[in-house]
Amino acid sequence: MFHAALLNPFDTVLYHLINGLAGHSVLLDQVMIFFAKDAPEIYALLFLIAWFTLPKPDIQRRHALIMAGLAGILALIINLIISHIWFRPRPFTVFPKGSFNQLIPHSNDASFPSDHASGSFGFAAGSWGHNSRWISRTFTVIAIIVMVARVFVGVHYPTDVIGGMIIGIFSGKVMWKFSRWIFPLSSFIAKIFRFGPKTTAVTKEEKHSSTL
Q: Are residues 120 and 39 in contact, defined by beta-carbon separation less than 8 angstroms?
């Protein structure tokens, strides 16, 4: 495994610019902590809201939701592979104490790429062009907030979250290449919840004619 912090002016300046906003407003701090920590739970909740509020016959957009979730999972798998090849220390272990604000506790695992950013943008990109605008736009706005929040609370460099965004978008595009193989599973899951087009009842006359 290759270890390197690879500090650069872009990361250093932008990290301190965004992270320097922390600690001045209790409300802003709490909002950013919420998005930085609870992104998976936020997307799970949005998934359920969308799943149960889409029109009942609509399997295609429910399939798009499942594809978005799978894109987020693929992004995390890619992150795991990268982090085992290149270990980048967290900024709170590199910058001098007192030069940053760390608002949440965090283990000293690999900083690049950001799992939260990758998963969030995997979810967002997986819905682009395939789902209702309110769903894809909501997913995207939250993904952007999560990106900023992870730097704001002090646990990622800007390039960590930018890298995560790229991986998430890539995962969303790749996942849709396998859509036709996954659709039967999506359809089966939707039907468990009694979603999908209603089948027309077969009349006695139709049954009789089919036996002739």
A: yes
Tokens of 190: 């939707």
- pLDDT at 208 > cutoff 60: no
Q: Is the pLDDT of residue 205 over 70?
A: no
Question: How far is Cα 131 from Cα 65, in angstroms, rounded to an integer?
Answer: 8
Please state, in angstroms and as integers, the Cα–Cα distance from residue 104 to each residue in 21, 161, 166, 169, 186, following that order. 15, 17, 25, 27, 37
pTM as predicted: 0.89
Cis peptide before 113 (omega within 30 of 0): yes
CB atoms within 10 A of CB 184: 10
- For residue 191, the one-letter residue type is K
How high is the mean pLDDT of the chain?
91
Give the confidence band of 5 by pLDDT, cuts at 50, 70, 90: low
> Encoding tokens for residue 3?
């270890």
